[in-house]
Amino acid sequence: MTTVLRMEKISKEYRGVKAVQAVDFDLEQGELHSILGENGAGKSTLTKLMAGVIEPSSGEIFVNNQKVEFQSPSEALNMGIAMVFQETSLVPSMTVAQNLFLGNERFLNSLRRINIQAQQFLQSLNFTVSPTALVMSLGAAQRQMLEIARAVRLNANILIFDEPTASLTPEEKKHLFSLIQRLQKSGVSVIFISHALEESLQISDRITVLRDGEKIFTKPTHDLDRNKVVQAMIGRSLSYSIGQTRKQQDIRLSGKKILSVQGLSMGNLVKNNSFSVFSGQVTTIFGLVGSGRTETAKIISGIYKRDFARGGQVDFQGRTIRYRVPSKAVSDGIVYVTEDRKNEGFFDKMTVGENLYSGYLSSKTHNGLSVSMREMRDISKLWIEKVSIKAINDNANVVELSGGNQQKTVIGKTLIQKPELCFFDEPTRGVDVSAIDEIHELIGNLADSGLAVIVISSYLPEVRKISDRILVCRQGRIVEEFSPANVSDKDIMFAAVH
Amino acid sequence: MISKTEFTQEKVVVAVSVGLFILFSFLLSGFFSASNLIGLIRNISILGILGVGMGIVIIGRGIDLSMVSILAISAAFFIEMLNAGIPLTGSFFIALCFVLLIGIVNGVLIAYGEIPPIFATLAMGLFVYGYGRSQIMSADVAYVPDEYTDLLDLGTLKPLGVPIEVYIFVAVCIVAWFFLRKTKYGHYTYYIGDNYEAARNVGIPVRPMIVLQYALSALFAAIAGAIVAGTILSLNTRIVNSTLLYDVILIVVLGGIGLSGGKGGVSNVIFGALLIGILVNGMTIMDLEQTHQNLIKALILLVVVILDTIFNQRNEQTEKQGDI
Question: d(Cα B64, Cα B70) in Å, to the nearest integer?
């Protein structure tokens, strides 16, 4: 076996945050190598380094024992390394053949010629799709296979897959795996990132586990089982106070049942989801990315619409609700703090004060039509203190603040609305370490004051630290409930992976 | 809403306006006289009223390309109804309902139909103009019937020696300023223009708000139409084919209301209109040809926009999809 790709002591920092730390990695010819880890463990960063999408802060990369420094993905592609993206980079309005030849058309491009060439090429891969079919008419799996075909056509001998099976049906998965196996036989090496443990254990030759940007181990798959992999993924060093577990006596008892969800469904993302939420408690929903947690929260708070027929039933405070727009949910006391604050959280041309004021203006506590600057200043001063935003004054622009203070601004503007049920979606994502504890304390205080708080998180230590009840979401529905006092990380992780 | 950048486009425009004003006052005889200055403001009042309406829509990250059609056809419709013998108040209310209906349909198409504003209002503008010319009017020009000329003649109304349209422009500015700064719905407009998704999530009724914005811009267009018709007692619908619409967008963008929404205010429209007003007035006194005037207007717009991108650089933090 020859080593086709080697990385030595490779590191990548984003503004002082280490995404990948001194990782050694090697890939042999014709092998299928899985990289596993929790969300944020550094899997995607590591593969992006290989594919030249980003440049390493330190460390060296060797391809075929030759040192390389990629400036762009096209340089990596020239060396035979191709990445197959999660969101495919095909042009939907063009045909299969046109996409296959995208970027290397001749000056005088003849459709007939590329159709014939594409036909021959696709047949050689044993991939039956018409070259004249439009890409938008293809299913997710066929699109992915087309991407693979494109990479192979460009003589790629190292293929990187980021979550290739997340959006595929079991049937489509089988097709994809058989194509991958055929490629392997012809000497192509494959790197595979997946949340689906079973899959990785089934098809890969070796497995590398990453945690917090560091490599835990690389082992042949036959030395591993599901248990060992899960343990390696979650066995975390306690870097700061987060990670402490809650004692039985600290756990808040459930108040009255405030929300009950039955059979909630939305397309493929939320399927027949049922659960209840109680006031005066922090309920966390743990799950991997794509498990339908965010969608569930957004449906309940009126941002998304559930399926029209058989969409399920949601009862809030004993009343059946079905919101078409968030404003109705807000006035009923259901609010949602987004995981994507830049795109749907704060108003980036405005000051902290104006951001906070938006919550007050659109809530039922504000009566009448008129607004005043003095009222805005009073309210923002009060809430800057309440959620302890560290800004020079309420006139600071919100984009100038740190991630933590931006998040507190978004939380503040939501809490002004005096909610009774509050969703926090990944409340500490992109938040500086010092602010994480403050946000956790804030969430705890809300529950103490009688609110029903639902935290969506994919960070286990956070889940264990703040929750009174843990729900685990998998493939669009809540599958398990735990009490934080007598559950191990392993149990939670087991329930979440499929 | 409040821009904290040291060097804003607004300041550039004000500085250039003041500079031109001083320059013209010294160099051009007859520029710095009461009659010329009143004439200057009179000239920009139509543009300014349209600009205020357009400004409100652009702050909400939309655009209304149907304003000039609404201006022309609403006034012409009103005049034609008078000609047909419908009483004054009846004609007025029918015309008002017609205008509001167009604005509301614009808003519904954009907010509920999710059609991009540029297409919805472009189509609406063409439709309104085509409908008006083919179904309501028999000729290009509508003349106010003789029995109403005394009542509707705005051209002769000059309280304190200042033409009536200047008062109307000032009133429109005050109303718009009050709406944007002092009412909840005005603030909503800024929030929606800044970040539509965030505004929706925080519980602002975004879709009715968008309908309101387009209803307002249609209303302001109709006010401008009433002035145009009232001062010359007729209305030539060929105004739709003039460069008026571009001039309106010019003063709004020039004044510093970014097409990406969420910033600026009535003052920006006034500054933009003043700059263009001073410039055009000076060039007219200098007896420059229309074509040269257009050239200079274009250069000024480019310079201001380039200065704005230099001083307010976009970066990863502030960039968002859909920014123009």
Answer: 10
Verify whether the Cβ–Cβ distance B203 to A350 is below 8 Å.
no
Contact A348 B197 (CB under 8 A): no
Q: B188 in contact with A at a CB cutoff of 8 Å?
A: yes
Give me the residues paired with residue A313 across strands. Answer: A262
- Specify the pairing of strand A58-63 against strand A66-68: antiparallel
**DSSP output for A292-347:** SHHHHHHHHTTSS---SSS--EEEETTEEE--SSHHHHHHHTEEEE-S-HHHHT--
Give me the interface pTM, i.e. the ipTM. Answer: 0.81
| Cβ separation A361–B187 shorter than 8 A | yes
**What beta strand segments (E) does B133-279 contain?**
141-143, 234-236
How far is A495 from A481, CA to CA, in rounded Å?
9
* Å between B50 CA and nearest CA of chain A: 25
B 49-88 → A contacts, CB under 8 A: none
Q: What is the pLDDT of residue A344?
A: 87
Specify the pLDDT at position B22.
Answer: 92
- Residue A334 pairs in a beta bridge with A421
Q: What percent of chain A has pLDDT over 90?
A: 15
Whether residue B218 contacts residue B197, with contact meaning beta carbons closer than 8 Å, is answered with no
Q: How high does pLDDT run on average in chain A?
A: 83
d(CA A247, CA B271): 64
DSSP annotation of A401: S
pLDDT of residue B3: 43
In angstroms, the separation between the Cα of residue A366 and the nearest Cα of chain B is 9
Q: How does residue A87 score in pLDDT terms, banded at 50, 70 and 90?
A: low
> Mutate which of A14, A358, A392, A411 to disrupt the B interface (most B C-beta within 10 Å)?
A358
Residues paired with A261 in a beta bridge: A275, A314
Question: Per the structure block, which two tokens stand in for A196?
Answer: 């689906």
Q: Which of B4, B184, B195, B202 to mutate to test the interface with A (most CBs of A within 10 A)?
A: B202
pLDDT for B103-159, tens place per residue? 999 999 999 998 999 999 999 999 999 998 888 888 888 888 877 777 767 777 777
What phi and psi, each to the nearest 5 degrees, are found at residue B218? -65, -40
Per-residue pLDDT of A475-491, as tens digits, reads 888 998 988 887 888 88
Are A344 and B204 a contacting pair at CB < 8 A? no
Tokens of B217: 């811009």
B4 contact A CB<8A: yes
* CA distance linking residue A257 with residue A276, whole number of Å: 7
How is B125-151 classified by DSSP, letter by letter? HHHHHHHIIIII-SSSEEE--GGGHHH
User: Shortest CA distance to B247 belongs to which of B111, B49, B87?
Assistant: B49
Q: Between B181, B185, B191, which is nearest A347 by CB?
A: B191
Count of residues for chain B? Answer: 324
Work out whether strand A452-457 and strand A421-425 pair parallel, antiparallel, or are unpaired: parallel
Measured between CB atoms, which of A338, A347, A370 is closest to B194? A347
Is-contact A234 A487, C-beta < 8 A?
A: no
* CA–CA distance, A410 with A408 (Å, rounded to integer): 5
Closest CA to B116 of B277, B250, B3, B259: B259
* Contact flag B187-A358 (C-beta cutoff 8 Å): yes
List pLDDT tens digits, range A108-156: 777 888 888 888 888 877 777 888 888 888 777 778 778 878 887 877 8
What was the pLDDT predicted at B321?
40
Structure tokens at B63: 């655009």
Cβ contacts below 8 Å, chain A against chain B, sum to 110
Which residues does chain A have within 8 Å of residue B185's beta carbon, measured at their own beta carbons? Answer: 369
| Residue B94 reports pLDDT greater than 90 | yes
Average pLDDT over every residue of B287-301 = 84
Residue B41 has pLDDT above 80, yes or no: yes
Cβ <8 Å between B203 and A335: yes
DSSP A370: B
